[in-house]
Design a protein that fits this description.
The complex is a heterodimer of chains A (about 350) and B (about 325). Chain A has 13 helices and 10 strands. Chain A is α+β, with helices and mostly antiparallel strands and about 350 residues long. Chain B is built from 7 helices and 17 strands. Chain B folds into 3 domains: about 100 residues, Beta Barrel (Elongation Factor Tu (Ef-tu), domain 3), CATH 2.40.30; about 110 residues, Nucleotide-binding domain of ferredoxin-NADP reductase (FNR) module (Rossmann fold), CATH 3.40.50.80; about 90 residues, Beta-grasp domain (Ubiquitin-like (UB roll)), CATH 3.10.20. In chain B, strands 1, 2, 3, 4, 5, 6 and 7 form a 7-stranded antiparallel beta sheet that branches. By secondary structure, chain B is α/β, with parallel strands linked by helices. Classes of the chains: A alpha+beta (about 350), B alpha/beta (about 325). At the A-B interface, helix 3 and strand 6 of A face strand 7 and helix 2 of B.
Chain lengths: ~350, ~325
C-alpha cells in the first residue's frame, strides 16, 4: 500500500465506482479505498467477543472516520438496493407503530451524512419545513417533518434507499427489543421477512456458542440502557463468494451454489471477506434503537496488498471453532482460502489492532 | 460532549409548593428531542455537595429550545428539592445527562389511558402532547387535593378538553378505577404515576379486569430512602465507604471518587447492579429491578436505592 495513506488521507469520496454485485460482478475496491476497509481481526487467532465500543469518530481515512460512512461504492450499492427492492418488496417492512421511529431515523441519517459529507448532502430546516439535497443521486426534495404525505415514500423507506448499509429499527418494550422495522437488502443469510416482529433472543436463536456464554443476556441488558447521544459499534464478519451484497435466504438458489466454484486458481478473486460495521443508536422521540449494518466486501487478492492483513487472515481462519465454520457457511472453501493465503504469511509477528502498519 | 450544559431561563411558582423550571442550552441552539415519559438526571452544585437527581421532563418533546421540569418541595427533602426551591435562581448554570426513558409509551397501543396523582402528572405533560400530535386516542385521569393545587390542570384542560378529567379530593371526587379500565378496547395501555397507593390500585383494577401485564406501565421514581448509616468495603479499590443517613450508597461511592455505574438513580433501570462478595447482615432492597428470587439470592445490590444493615458488606468495586 502507499506509505501513510491510511492515516494521512481524510475520507472524502468525490467520484463513485460503477461496480456490480451480481451477473458480471464487476465490483472492485480502488487501491486508495483499500485502507478504508474495516479489517475485523485485532489479533492472530479468533476469539468470540461482543467487542462493543463507543461509536465515536475514528482514524481519518478509515471506515470509522464518520459515524455514517459513505464511500466510493455509494451509487452502485444504492442501485443494487433499488433492484433488490423491485424484485422483492418485502425487504422493506415497518410495522405501523414504528412511524415515529421512522422520522427519528430519517433525521439521524440525514444529519449525519450532511455533517460528514457537505459536498454530497445538504439538509436545511425551516421549522418543520425541511429541504434535503442528495447530489450523487440527483435528489432535491422539500417536505414537512412529521407528515408522511409530503414524501414520495415512508420516511424510513425514503432515507434507507439513500444510505449505504442495511438498517433495522428495534422497538423497546417489556424489557426487550423487537425487530419491528427494517430495510435489509445486503444481508449475510438472514431474512427480515422471517425476523420481523421477533424479540432479541428470538432473532439471535440460530447463533451458535454465544447463548451458552450468556452473551445475548448481557448484550440485551446493555442495549436496553443504551443512552441518547452515545451510540456504540461492533464489527462482525463472514465470507462471501463473489462480491454479492444480496446473500439472503430468499435468493439462496442464486448464491448457494457459488460456494462450490472456489478453486485454488480463482480463490483470490472470488473469495471475499465480508465485514459488517454494526452500530446502535438510541433514537430521541421514539426511544427505539437504530441498528445500521454497514457491509464491506474485499477480495483476498486485495486484502493481501496490506502485508499485515495477509499474514493475519490465514492464521485467524485456521483458529476458527468448527461450529463457527459451519454457521458462517465456510466449510466448503475455508481450506482452499487458507491455502491461497498461506504464501502471504511469512511468519513474521503482526502488530496489535486492526489498522495497516 | 454528551453532558448537557444548561442555564435556568425561567422559574415559575404558579402552584404553591411546586416549582416549574425551564432550562435552555447555555450556548444557544437546540437541545436533543426526547421521548414522552423521559427524565433528566440533573447535576446540582450545592455548596460542597454535588447532587444528581432524576426529574421527569414535562415540556413538549418537540420544543427543543428548552426543557422543563416541575419539582415538588419534599416534606423531608434530602436536599435536591430544597435546593431547587430555595437556592436556584434564573441565570444559574446546571448540567444534566441526556434524556433517558424508563416510562416509554407502548407505540402499539390502540388507546392510552393515564392515571396521575399529584406531582405524578409531570411525565403525562409530555405524553399527552405526543399522543395529541400523533393523533393517538388517549384519556388522562388526574387525582389532586384541590383544583388550586393541581399543577398544570388548567393548561391540560385547555390543551385537551374532555380528554382530561380532574378528581379534586376536597370536592369528594375519586377516580373510579374499575370504571376507567372496565370499558376500554383491546390493545389499550395503562400508564400510572403518583402516590404508591394510587399506582397499586390502578394496576390492580386493570389486572382484575383481565388486562395483560404487558399493557400496564408504572413510573416508580422515588428518592433513595434514608436509613441507618452503614459501611461498605470495596474489594477492588481496597477502601471503605461510609454511607450517611440521608445519603445513598451510590452517592457515598461517588463522594469517595469511585466510578460506580448508574443511570436512572431511581432503582428502575438496573445499570447500577453491583456484585456482593460478602454480606454479614441484611441487604435492604429498595429497587424495582431485581426479582424476588434475585433479592433472595443476595448476591447483587442496586447502589442507587438499596441499603444494608449488619456487620460487613463487601462489594465488587
Amino acid at each position: 500500500m502507499p506509505p501513510g495513506s491510511a492515516t494521512a488521507a481524510v475520507h472524502r469520496p468525490e467520484t463513485f465506482l460503477p461496480g456490480t454485485f451480481r451477473d458480471d460482478f464487476s465490483y472492485r475496491n480502488s487501491p486508495g479505498n483499500i485502507p478504508h476497509f474495516p479489517f475485523p481481526f485485532a489479533e492472530d487467532s479468533y476469539r468470540y467477543s461482543v467487542n462493543i465500543e463507543p461509536h465515536v469518530p475514528g482514524r481519518p481515512g478509515s471506515a470509522f472516520e464518520h459515524l455514517i460512512d459513505v464511500d466510493e461504492h455509494y451509487l452502485s450499492e444504492m442501485a443494487d438496493r433499488a433492484r433488490v427492492l423491485e424484485e422483492d418488496p418485502l425487504r422493506y417492512q415497518a410495522l405501523p407503530h414504528m412511524m415515529l421511529a421512522q422520522w427519528d431515523v430519517l433525521e439521524l441519517l440525514m444529519e449525519e451524512q450532511a455533517r460528514a459529507y457537505p459536498h454530497l448532502f445538504t439538509l436545511t430546516k425551516d421549522g418543520d419545513r425541511w429541504r434535503w439535497i442528495n447530489r450523487p443521486m440527483g435528489i432535491d426534495d422539500t417536505f414537512t417533518f412529521g407528515d408522511p404525505a409530503t414524501l414520495p415514500r415512508e420516511p424510513f423507506d425514503y432515507i434507507a434507499r439513500q444510505t449505504q448499509g442495511d438498517h433495522a429499527i428495534l422497538d423497546q418494550r417489556d424489557g426487550n427489543l423487537w425487530m419491528d422495522a427494517g430495510m435489509i437488502t445486503a444481508q449475510a443469510d438472514w431474512s427480515l421477512d422471517f425476523d420481523v416482529g421477533m424479540s432479541f433472543h428470538e432473532w439471535h436463536a440460530p447463533v451458535p456458542l454465544a447463548h451458552e456464554m450468556g452473551v445475548f443476556d448481557r448484550a440485551l441488558k446493555f442495549l436496553l440502557n443504551l443512552r441518547l447521544g452515545q451510540p456504540v459499534r461492533r464489527l462482525n464478519w463472514t465470507m462471501t463468494i463473489n462480491p454479492r451484497l444480496d446473500t439472503s435466504p430468499e435468493r439462496y438458489p442464486h448464491w448457494g451454489p457459488d460456494r462450490m466454484t472456489v478453486t485454488p486458481q480463482n480463490a483470490g478473486r472470488k473469495v471475499h471477506l465480508r465485514v459488517e460495521l454494526q452500530s446502535l443508536w438510541r433514537l430521541p422521540r421514539s426511544n427505539a434503537i437504530l441498528f445500521p449494518i454497514r457491509g464491506y466486501l474485499m477480495s483476498l487478492d486485495q486484502i493481501v496488498t496490506v502485508p499485515k492483513w495477509g499474514r493475519r487472515l490465514p492464521r485467524v481462519l485456521e483458529s476458527l471453532p468448527p461450529e463457527l465454520v459451519e454457521y458462517k457457511g465456510l466449510s466448503r472453501y475455508r481450506q482452499t482460502a487458507i491455502d491461497w493465503l498461506k504464501p502471504y504469511d511469512d511468519g513474521q509477528p503482526t502488530s496489535p489492532g486492526i489498522f495497516p502498519d | 460532549m454528551t453532558e448537557l450544559a444548561l442555564r435556568v431561563a425561567a422559574i415559575d411558582d404558579a402552584i404553591p409548593g411546586i416549582r416549574r423550571i425551564r432550562l435552555v442550552p447555555r450556548t444557544g441552539g437546540l437541545l436533543p428531542a426526547f421521548s414522552a415519559g423521559a427524565h433528566l438526571v440533573l447535576a446540582m452544585r450545592d455548596g460542597p455537595t454535588l447532587r444528581r437527581n432524576p426529574y421527569s421532563l414535562c415540556s413538549d418533546p418537540e420544543d427543543r429550545s428548552g426543557y422543563e421540569i416541575a419539582v415538588r418541595r419534599a416534606e423531608r427533602s434530602r436536599g435536591g428539592s430544597a435546593f431547587l426551591h430555595d437556592r436556584l435562581a434564573v441565570g444559574d448554570l446546571l448540567s444534566a445527562g441526556q434524556p433517558a426513558n424508563l416510562f416509554q409509551p407502548d407505540w402499539r397501543g390502540r388507546r392510552h389511558v393515564m392515571v396521575a396523582g399529584g406531582i405524578g402528572i409531570t411525565p403525562f405533560m409530555a405524553m399527552t402532547a405526543t399522543f395529541d400530535r400523533l393523533g393517538l386516542p388517549f384519556e388522562l385521569h388526574y387525582a389532586c387535593r384541590s383544583r388550586a393545587t393541581a399543577a398544570f390542570a388548567d393548561l391540560l384542560v385547555a390543551r385537551h378538553g374532555a380528554r382530561v378529567t380532574l378528581y379534586p379530593s376536597d370536592e369528594g371526587r375519586r377516580i373510579d378505577l374499575a370504571a376507567v379500565v372496565g370499558d376500554q378496547p383491546l390493545g389499550t395501555h395503562l400508564y400510572t404515576c403518583g402516590p404508591d397507593a394510587l399506582m397499586a390500585a390502578a394496576l390492580q383494577a386493570a389486572r382484575d379486569a383481565g388486562w395483560p401485564d404487558q399493557a400496564l406501565h408504572a413510573e416508580r421514581f422515588e428518592a433513595p430512602p434514608p436509613g441507618d448509616p452503614f459501611t461498605a468495603t470495596l474489594a477492588r479499590s481496597g477502601i471503605e465507604v461510609t454511607v450517611g443517613r440521608d445519603q445513598s450508597l451510590l452517592e457515598a461511592l461517588e463522594a469517595a471518587g469511585v466510578a460506580a455505574p448508574c443511570l436512572c438513580r431511581g432503582g428502575a433501570c438496573g445499570e447500577c447492579a453491583t456484585r456482593v462478595i460478602e454480606a454479614r447482615g441484611t441487604i435492604l432492597h429498595n429497587d424495582h429491578f431485581l426479582s424476588p428470587g434475585e433479592r433472595a439470592a443476595g448476591d447483587r445490590i442496586m447502589t442507587c436505592m438499596s441499603r444494608f444493615t449488619g456487620d460487613r458488606l463487601v462489594l465488587d468495586l
